[in-house]
Design brief:
With 295 residues, the protein is an all-alpha fold. The protein has one domain. The chain contains 12 helices and no strands. The radius of gyration is 20 Å and the shape is globular.
Length: 295
């Protein structure tokens, strides 16, 4: 038993080192081809009003994601949250997603939920992640219809129809297990709100990209939305921290096609990464330390 535990810990350490190495390798392959002075100039030369709007949009995005997490928990009819419990667990999850490459650490937030049992918290977590992933796939499949990347048009339309209807047939998948069947009434009631929240959150993210890239050269929001939605498939490739590196690797060729330099693209993604992901992780880490001391 002790040997198995040691082997498990060793595998975890090796996986962490491997994914950290992949993150560093990808980031090095990107930055080695860039003019770092230009990246830093882009980074520090943003107007104050742009940064303030980005911060405001970030607050809205996190609020929407917090609501999605809340609704995913409330799908279980037996869950009755304590005061601030959902908010604290959400913010702690933002910190824990940096603990393990691929953002797998975010699952740790269920340890801060007092549900009727942990397996129901896990079900809610899986449902929340499904809706987050669905939004990425929905916008990416829609972009495939309008951005030519070499896929046959019929395949693009099939993928779009599959992901467009995914929340609908998810309801029926809950009936395959009797333990999940009790979630169906709550899902039917709250899933539409979760769908709308994820659509709005994703669109707000594309507004952030559009706002920054518009400072470089005029571009339509539609163009940015389609191309960034394809690069955001990086979040579904769990090999780096929060998609860092992979997202930039995908975004560079997509945005270079419409006239942006690599330096513009990388500085844009890093600004949003710091404002949205890093800042929230720092707040979550403070809440984690506070909760850990009091419980």
């Amino acid at each position: 038993m002790q040997l198995e535990k040691k082997n498990s810990n060793l595998r975890g350490i090796l996986s962490f080192i491997l994914k950290l190495g992949i993150t560093i390798l990808i980031m090095w392959s990107i930055f080695s081809k860039l003019n770092l002075n230009e990246v830093m100039r882009e980074f520090v030369s943003q107007p104050i009003w742009v940064i303030l709007i980005l911060l405001g949009i970030t607050v809205l995005r996190h609020w929407g994601q917090y609501l999605t997490w809340k609704w995913a928990l409330m799908i279980n009819p037996n869950y009755h949250p304590a005061k601030y419990e959902i908010f604290n667990s959400y913010m702690i999850g933002q910190a824990l997603r940096f603990a393990i490459p691929g953002s797998f650490g975010i699952i740790g937030k269920i340890a801060f939920i007092h549900n009727d049992n942990k397996i129901n918290s896990l079900y809610s977590f899986i449902l929340e992640r499904i809706f987050v992933t669905w939004a990425l796939l929905f916008f990416a499949s829609m972009a495939l219809v309008f951005v030519d990347i070499g896929l046959p048009s019929w395949l693009s339309w099939i993928l779009f129809l599959i992901f467009n209807t995914m929340p609908f047939w998810m309801y029926f998948l809950l009936s395959v297990d009797r333990r999940l069947k009790k979630l169906q009434p709550g899902y039917l009631k709250l899933a539409p709100a979760m769908v709308m929240a994820q659509i709005v959150i994703t669109l707000l993210n594309y507004v952030q990209y559009w706002l920054l890239l518009e400072q470089v050269q005029p571009v339509s929001f539609w163009e940015i939305m389609n191309r960034m939605s394809l690069s955001h498939l990086a979040y579904s490739i769990p090999i780096t921290f929060a998609g860092l590196g992979v997202k930039e690797k995908l975004a560079i060729p997509l945005l270079s096609d419409i006239g942006y330099m690599s330096e513009n693209i990388v500085s844009t993604t890093l600004i949003i990464f710091i404002i949205h992901d890093v800042a929230a992780a720092l707040v979550g880490a403070i809440i984690f330390l506070k909760v850990k001391r009091t419980k």
